[in-house]
Amino acid sequence: MTAPTVAAPRLLPWLLRVHRPALYVWTGLLVLLGGTLLWLWGPLTDAAAEAWRQYNACATGGVCRYDQDAILRYKDVYLYASFAVLAVPFLVAAWAGGALTGRELEHGTAQLAWSQGISPARWLTAKLAVPAALVGAGTGLLVLLHHLTWSAGRSRVDNTKSWFSTETFYANGPLVVALALAGLAAGALAGLLLRRSLAALGAAAVAVAALWTALRFALPHLWPTATGVSGLDGGPGYPGLLVDQGLVTATGAHIDNPGCGSTATAECRELFDRLDAVGYYTDYHPASHYWPLQLTATGAVLAAAALMTLIAFRLLRRRTADKGAAR
Amino acid sequence: MVAYRIDRRSGVATYVQIVQQTKQALRLGLLMPGDKLPTAREVVEATAINPNTVLKAYRELEREGLVEARRGLGTFVRKSLGTAPADSPLRTELDAWAARAREAGLDRDDVAALFTAVLEKHFQGDPS
Amino acid sequence: MTDTALEAAALGKRFRRRWALRDCTFRLPAGRVCAVVGPNGAGKSTLLALAAGLLAPEDGTVTVLGTDPASARARVGYVAQDKPLYPQLTVAETLRTGADLNPGRWDAAAAERIAAGGDLDPKARVRSLSGGQRTRVALALALAKRPELLLLDEPMADLDPLARHELMGVLMVQAAQHGTTIVMSSHVVAELEGSCDHLLLIGDGRVRLAGEIDDLLAAHTRVSGPAQGSLGDHTVVESRTTGRQLTALIRPTGPLSDDWRASMPTLEELVLAHLRNPDAPALTPTQTPSPAESGSGAASGSASGSESESEETRA
Fold first, then answer.
1. Are strands B67-70 and B74-77 parallel, antiparallel or unpaired?
2. B19 and chain C in contact, CB less than 8 A
3. What is the value of ipTM here, to two decimals?
4. Same domain, B103 and B57
5. CATH topology of domain C4-212
C-alpha cells in the first residue's frame, strides 16, 4: 500500500466552490451599499449642503426658495444606508447558522467533508477563517465609507445626525464589524448545536439581537462619564451621549430629578428650594469618548465572539472525538 | 474463456459453483489445456462476487491438478477432464433403467427424486 | 501495515438515554469484505460513523487500521446512508472537490470512470440526479481517495438491480485489485450474500454474530427430527415443532445422534434465526471455537471451515 503522501488539502477552492452563492450575494451587497454610500458622500451631500446654504441665506422673511427635496433625500438615504450597515451582523449570523454549518450538518455534507480527509476541527477552522476575513474586510469597508460620508456631511449639512445618535454611533465604527464577526461565530455555533438550518438561522439572528440589546444597556457604562452642571434656570444641557441626569444640592449631592419642569413656575421653585437643589447635573459622554467607547465595546463583542468560537470547537471535538480539535 | 454464472438461490456454495462450471467447461471441451481462466478481477467485475471466493475456487481447481497459477500471468488449464462418452456402458445402463422406470408408471418427478436421492447417498459430501 | 482493518473493544454509543450500540467487540482482518447486517435501527449506522471518526464513543474503543479513527481519516472512505453531496455543485465540481481535499491520494481517472459508468453528465447539478446516480457519485468520491478501508452505509439501498450488480462489481474489483477492506451495511442479507466473506450481525445495539461467513455457517447446523427428540448439549439458537417434527438451528458441541437429519443453513436462515431469537447466545470472535482458523488467510481459513462443515453435516 502506498504511504500516504502528506499534502495539505486545498481548502480555499473547496470552500469558495461550496459557498459560491454566498460569495456572490456578499459581493453584490458590498457593491450596492458601497455605491450608495459613495453616492451619498458625493452628489447627495453636495446637493443637501447647497440646499442648506440657500435655506440659511433666505432665513429673514419673504418667500424662501431652496431645494427641500435634496435635504430630505440626503436624510432618507443616510438613514437607509445606516440601517443597511447595521443589518449586516444579522445577515451574517443568519447565513452562518443556516448555510455555513446548520445546513451542512442537516444534510450530512459536513460528514462528507470529514470523510474526505479534512478533520472536523480543520473544517470548522476553514469555515470560520475565510468568511471571517471576507466579512471583516467587507464590513470594515462599509464602516469606513459610512464614517467618511458622515464626516463629510457634518460641517456642511445641518441635519447630519449627531455622533451619538444610535444608528450613527454603531454604523460609524469598528463595533459593527465586531458584531458581524460575533454573528458569524453565533451562527456557526447555532448550526452545530441545532443541526437544522432553519432553526439555526433563527437562533443566530436572535443571538445577535440579544447581544446587541445587552450592549445597548452596557455601552454607556463601558467608559467613565463626564459630568456637567448647569444652573436651575437654564435647564439641563449636555453636548453628547446622555447617561444620567438629576439635581445637585447645595452640599453637592446628586438626587433624582422630580421632573417638575422649569423654575419659572412658583410650585417648582418651591419644590427645588425644599430639595435644596442648586442646579442640574448631567452624566454624559462627550464626543471625545467616541473612540474609547467604540473600542471597549468592540473588545467586549470580540471576546463574546471568541467565546462562542471556543464553545463551537469544544462541541465539535466532543461529538466527533477529533484529536486535532483537542489541541 | 469461460463466463461464470452464479446462482445465489441454488444453495450451492459460490466457490463450488465456479469449480463445477469450470469442470463442466473442461468436460465439454470449452476449455482446453493451455487456456487461461478469467482473472479474479474479471470474474468479480462481471459477477459481483467476493474476490476471495474466486481465488478459493481456483485454489481448489489447482489442488485437483486441473489448473496451474503462473505468477503474474494468470491461471491456466493443465489438463482436460475425461468425459463419459455418449455410448459408454454406464449411459446404456442408465438409459435402460429410465425406460424401466417409465414402464413401471413413474413420472418425471418421481424419477428425478429417486435419482437425486441415490446421488445424495453415494456422493454426499463430495465437493462436486 | 497492520493485518487488522477494524477492531472494536466494548464499544458503546448512547444518544440521549438510548444505547444505539453497546458492548460491541469484534475484529475484522484486513482484506475482507464484511457485511454489517441487522434490522433498521440496530446500530449499524452508528458503528460505521464511529469507525469513520464522525462520532465519539461513550464507551470502549474502536481501532481503525491500527490507529484511532481521527488519525486514520485520510486512509478511510465512508459513504453515509443518504449519500450526502453538495446539491448546488455539478458532478465535475464534486469530483474536483474530492481532488482538492485529498491531494496526493486522489485517483482522478478512477473517479471519472466510476461516475461515467452511469451515463452521468459531468455538468449536471447534483440536485438533479436520481438516487442511483447520487450513489454512484458518492462512491466515486469514496473510492477515488484510494482508501485502505471503505465504510459503506446501506450503499445499495436506492439502486435498481442492474446498477446494484454493476456497482457491487466495482467494489469487488476494488477489493481484488487493491486489497481494500470493505465494510458495508444492509438490512437485506440477500443483497450482500456472495459479495461478502465476513459477517457482523447486529441486533438491538449488540453484536450477535461476528466472523468469517464460512466459519459461522460451519458452526451451525439445521436439524430436523422427531418432536420428542433431545438436542442434548448442543446450543439451540432456534427450534420449532410442527406436528411430529422438530426443526432447529443449533450450534453442535459434538457429534449429532442418528435421529437427526442435518443440513447446512443458508446465511439468511442463520441471520433470521438469530434476529428472531434475541436471547440466543451470541457468537463473536472471543467465543469462536478455533480462532486460529481466521488468522491463516482468507481462502485457506475458509477452506478448512468448509471441511469441518461437511464433517458435521455427515455426522
1. antiparallel
2. no
3. 0.83
4. no
5. Rossmann fold (3.40.50)
